[in-house]
Design goal:
The complex is a heterodimer of chains A (about 90) and B (about 450). Chain A is α+β, with helices and mostly antiparallel strands and about 90 residues long. Chain A has a single domain, classed as ACT domain (Alpha-Beta Plaits), CATH 3.30.70.260. In chain A, strand 2 and strand 3 form a beta hairpin. Chain B is an alpha/beta fold and about 450 residues long. Helices cover about 45% and strands about 15% of the residues of chain B. Chain B contains 15 helices and 13 strands. In chain B, the strands form two sheets. In chain B, strands 1, 2, 3, 4, 5, 6, 7, 8, 9, 10 and 13 form an eleven-stranded mixed sheet that branches. In chain B, helix 14 links the parallel strand 9 and strand 10. Chain B is globular and about 60 Å long. The N and C termini of chain B lie far apart (about 50 Å). Classes of the chains: A alpha+beta (about 90), B alpha/beta (about 450). Chains A and B meet through strand 2, strand 3, helix 2, strand 4 and helix 3 of A and helix 1, helix 3 and helix 9 of B.
C-alpha cells in the first residue's frame, strides 16, 4: 500500500475538510485516519491516505492539493509517508 | 501510526530549520572510456556521462516533491581524469574539462567533480598534465571541480606536488581575477581523500568503486542548532544525547532519499555522507551550533572541544541510521559558506591558525578561506603542507580549499555567490617557509602506517 500524509495548516474557516475530501474522493484516494487540533483559530490537520487505487501520479495530486490550498488560503501538503516512518520509527 | 506531533516535527525541520538533503551525487567510472586520441576520449566520456545521468536531475526533483524535502543539489563525480585520460598521452587536459562542463550542462547538474589526480606518492606524466591544466580548466569552465590528493597516512606527503599547487593556485586566482578568483573555490587539495565523497569541490569517483553508484550527502546544522536551544542548561550527557538523536533523524531522511534515488535510477546505492554542511542561509550554520554549545564566537577558547564533541556525536547518531556511511562524514567548517563563521572572522575571534586547530577534530580542513592575493606561493604551499600533515598523522581526511583573491587585501570582502557565499579576507602568517617548501621529494609515511 502506498500511503501519504496530508497536512493542512492555516486559519480556521468553513469547508476546509469538505474541499480536501471531495478532491480526494474524486481522485480515488481513501482516507484512513484524520486528526486535527485548533489552537487560537489556527487549524492544524493531518490525514493518512491510501494512494494505491488512485490513477493519478503523486506529483499531480500534490499540485492539485496545493492549488486548493491557495484557493482557500491554507497550506496543504501531501508527502509520502516513508519520510516520517524513516525519521520516527526504528 | 505516525501522529500529528511527529509530522509537525519533521515538517518544522524542513520548513523552518533548513533540513535538506544537500546532494545526490552520481559517481560514474570513466575507465572504460580510455582512448589513444583526445577526440575519441572526449566523445566517449560525454556519451557515457550524459547517458548514465540523463534522469538524475528529474529523479532528484521528483523525490524532493513527493517526500516534501528539498534535495538541493544533483551532481556527478567521475574517475580522476588523470587516470581515465592517461592513454591519450596528451600534455594538456583543458579540452577534457570543457567536455565535462558540456556534459554537466547537458544533464543539468550544477557541479561535476573529478578533474583530479592522485599523486600522494608521485606523479605520472598524466598527473602532471592534469595539474598543469588546472588553472586554465577552472577559468574556462563553469561547473567543473578539481582536486588533487597529495598525501596519505600510508605514503606520506608528496611535497613536490604541494610546491606545485601553491603556484597553480596563484595562477588560477589570477585567471579568474574578475570573478574574485572563484576558480580556486572549485579546487581542493587532499590528504587521505575518500573515494566516495559526494560533496564538492572534492568529489571524485574512486578506482575501487563500481561502474556507477549513487552517494548522498545529508545536512542540517539548523536542525541541530534548534534542538540545542532547549539544552542551554543541560549537562554534557544530555547535550550529546540531543545531538545524536537529531543526527539520527537527519541521516534517516538521507538514507530514505538515497535508497529511493538508487531504486528509481536503477543504480546501486553507495554511501550516505552524514556531514553537517552549512550554507550561507541564516540559521544554517556550524558556528551557531558551537556558540549554542557555549562559546561566544567560533574561535573562542573551547571551540575545538565543542567541535570535537559535535563531530563525534554526529557520527554516533548517524551511523545507526545507515549501514553504509562514508565520504567525509562529520562537521564542515567552511568560512564563506557559514554566516556564523563570517561573523566570527569579522569580530576578530577566528583566525587561520585556530581554524587549523579545529580541523584536527572535524571532518575536513581549511575550507573556503579567502586570503590576500599577494600571498607568496611558498606560503600557500606551507599552509597546505601543515594541513596535510594533520591528516597524515591523525589518519583522517584533511583538505585545503583556499582562495588567494587577486587584487584583494585584508579588510576587503569577496562575494562568490550562491552556496559559496562571501568572505572577509583573512590575514596570513607571512614569515617565510620557502626553504622547507623548496626541498624536493616527499615526507615519508609516518611510523603508525606500518600496521601490517
Amino acid at each position: 500500500m502506498k500511503k501519504g500524509i496530508i497536512t493542512v495548516v492555516g486559519k480556521d474557516k468553513v469547508g476546509i475538510i469538505a474541499k480536501v475530501c471531495s478532491y480526494l474522493a474524486d481522485k480515488q484516494i481513501n482516507i484512513m485516519d484524520i486528526s486535527q487540533t485548533i489552537v487560537h483559530d489556527y487549524f492544524n490537520m493531518m490525514m493518512v491516505v491510501d494512494l494505491s487505487s488512485s490513477s493519478s501520479e503523486v506529483g499531480e495530486i500534490i499540485d492539485g492539493l496545493t492549488s486548493i490550498g491557495d484557493e482557500i488560503g491554507v497550506t496543504i501538503r501531501l508527502q509520502l509517508e516513508d519520510i516520517f516512518n524513516s525519521m520516527h520509527r526504528i | 501510526m505516525i501522529n500529528l506531533f511527529e509530522v509537525n516535527e519533521t515538517n518544522n525541520m524542513i520548513l523552518n530549520e533548513n533540513l535538506d538533503v544537500r546532494t545526490i551525487t552520481m559517481g560514474i567510472s570513466l575507465l572504460d572510456c580510455a582512448a589513444a586520441d583526445m577526440k575519441s576520449f572526449n566523445d566517449r566520456i560525454y556519451e557515457k556521462i550524459t547517458r548514465y545521468a540523463e534522469k538524475l536531475v528529474q529523479t532528484g526533483e521528483d523525490i524532493s516533491k513527493e517526500y516534501g524535502v528539498p534535495v538541493v543539489n544533483k551532481r556527478i563525480s567521475v574517475t580522476p581524469i588523470a587516470l581515465a585520460a592517461a592513454a591519450t598521452r596528451a600534455s594538456d587536459y583543458v579540452e577534457v574539462a570543457r567536455t565535462l562542463d558540456r556534459a554537466a550542462k547537458a544533464v543539468g547538474v550544477n557541479f561535476i567533480g573529478g578533474f583530479s589526480a592522485l599523486v600522494h606518492k608521485g606523479a605520472t606524466p598524466s598527473d602532471l598534465a592534469l595539474m598543469n591544466s588546472i588553472p586554465e580548466a577552472l577559468a574556462v569552465t563553469e561547473r567543473v571541480c578539481s582536486s588533487v590528493n597529495v598525501g596519505s597516512t600510508k605514503t606520506g606527503i608528496n611535497m613536490d606536488a604541494v610546491r606545485l599547487i601553491g603556484k597553480l593556485l596563484l595562477d588560477t586566482a589570477e585567471r579568474t581575477r574578475n570573478l574574485d578568483s572563484i576558480g580556486c573555490a572549485k579546487f581542493v587539495v587532499f590528504c587521505n581523500a575518500p573515494d566516495d565523497n559526494p560533496f564538492m569541490a572534492g568529489s571524485f569517483h574512486g578506482v575501487g568503486e563500481p561502474d556507477v553508484v549513487v552517494n548522498v550527502g545529508v545536512s542540517g546544522p539548523g536542525v541541530v542548532k534548534k534542538a540545542l536551544e532547549n539544552c542551554r542548561e543541560s549537562n554534557f550527557e544530555e547535550l550529546c544525547e540531543t545531538i545524536k538523536k537529531t543526527a539520527f533523524k537527519i541521516t534517516r531522511v538521507g538514507q530514505l532519499v538515497a535508497q529511493e534515488a538508487s531504486r528509481r535510477l536503477d543504480v546501486p546505492f553507495g554511501i550516505i555522507d552524514l556531514s553537517l554542511a552549512p550554507t550561507p542561509a541564516i540559521g544554517d550554520s556550524i558556528a551557531d551550533i558551537l556558540t549554542e554549545i557555549g562559546v561566544e564566537y567560533a574561535g573562542a577558547p573551547g571551540t575545538t572541544a565543542a567541535l570535537a564533541l559535535l563531530n563525534d556525536q554526529v557520527k554516533k547518531g548517524g551511523v545507526m541510521a545507515s549501514s553504509y556511511v562514508g565520504g567525509l562524514s562529520g562537521a564542515f567548517i567552511p568560512v564563506s559558506e557559514d554566516q556564523g563563521m563570517i561573523n566570527a572572522v569579522a569580530a576578530g575571534a577566528l583566525t587561520l591558525e585556530k581554524l587549523e586547530a579545529m580541523t584536527c577534530v572535524c571532518s575536513v580542513g581549511l575550507d573556503m578561506i579567502a586570503i590576500p592575493g599577494d600571498t607568496k606561493a611558498s606560503t600557500i604551499s606551507g599552509i597546505i603542507a601543515d594541513e596535510m600533515a594533520i591528516g597524515m598523522i591523525n589518519q583522517k581526511t584533511t583538505a585545503v580549499r583556499i582562495i588567494p583573491v587577486a587584487g584583494k587585501a585584508v579588510g576587503d570582502v569577496v562575494e562568490f555567490g550562491g552556496l559559496l557565499g562571501y568572505a572577509p579576507i583573512m590575514p596570513v602568517n607571512n614569515f617565510d617557509c620557502s626553504r622547507l617548501v623548496n626541498r624536493a621529494g616527499r615526507i615519508p609515511a609516518p611510523i603508525h602506517s606500518f600496521k601490517n
